[in-house]
């Protein structure tokens, strides 16, 4: 029996894993969890879905009498978000203290590769979602970000920037800062 992914189960578990790895307080965990759900998933999803909905309906339609629905675009985002969430919120925290949190080339390579693969999956699954619509043409344009992504990946590894370390510091900062 096939069971669809339930984001309601995955997100709290990955947020608990993050809280343990980052040493977050209970309030830090709650803030982190709410940020992941409402900003990372829904907020970014609304922006991406709206942008791709506009692009699809403006330049990629084969005929003028059919439109891509915004809800479909948001659904494509959710489908593409799951592998990204798995890579960045499960794999990365599990590997962080063992393989990524070091100031050397191998740690930087591994940490940045996780980000490259996660965002690459997002781009590819988004491409597949729009390619499935027969009313669209030239959907290969959704693969164009791979060029920039690869150049950025190589540049960050060679420049000495460990994106995973920066992200973990940012996650900790946004979850544990207290307004007085």
From TrEMBL:
Q: Where are the transmembrane segments?
A: 12-30, 37-60, 80-102, 114-136, 142-164
Instruction: Report the InterPro entries cross-referenced here.
Output: UNC-50
Q: What is its main location?
A: membrane
Identify its membrane topology class. Multi-pass membrane protein
Q: Which GO cellular component term is one of those annotated? A: Golgi membrane
Keyword Transmembrane part of the UniProt annotation: yes
* Keyword annotations of the record: Membrane, Transmembrane, Transmembrane helix
Q: Where in the cell is it found?
A: Membrane
Asked if the record carries the keyword Membrane, the reply is yes
Give the family from UniProt: Belongs to the unc-50 family.
Q: Which PANTHER family match?
A: PROTEIN UNC-50 HOMOLOG (PTHR12841)
Record's protein name: Unc-50-like protein
């Amino acid at each position: 029996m096939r069971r669809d992914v339930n984001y309601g189960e995955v997100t709290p578990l990955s947020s608990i894993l993050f809280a343990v790895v980052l040493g977050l307080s209970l309030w830090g965990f709650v803030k982190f969890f709410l940020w992941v759900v409402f900003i990372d998933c829904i907020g970014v999803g609304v922006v991406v879905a709206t942008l791709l909905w506009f692009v699809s309906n403006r330049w990629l339609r084969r005929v003028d009498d059919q439109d891509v629905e915004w809800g479909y675009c948001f659904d494509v985002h959710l489908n593409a978000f799951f592998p990204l969430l798995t890579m960045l919120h499960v794999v990365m925290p599990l590997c962080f203290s063992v393989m990524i949190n070091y100031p050397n080339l191998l740690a930087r390579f591994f940490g940045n590769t996780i980000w490259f693969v996660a965002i690459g999956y997002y781009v590819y699954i988004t491409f597949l979602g729009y390619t499935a619509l027969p009313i669209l043409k030239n959907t290969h344009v959704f693969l164009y970000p791979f060029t920039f992504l690869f150049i950025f990946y190589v540049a960050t590894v060679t420049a000495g920037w460990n994106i995973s370390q920066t992200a973990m510091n940012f996650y900790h900062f946004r979850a544990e800062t207290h307004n007085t």
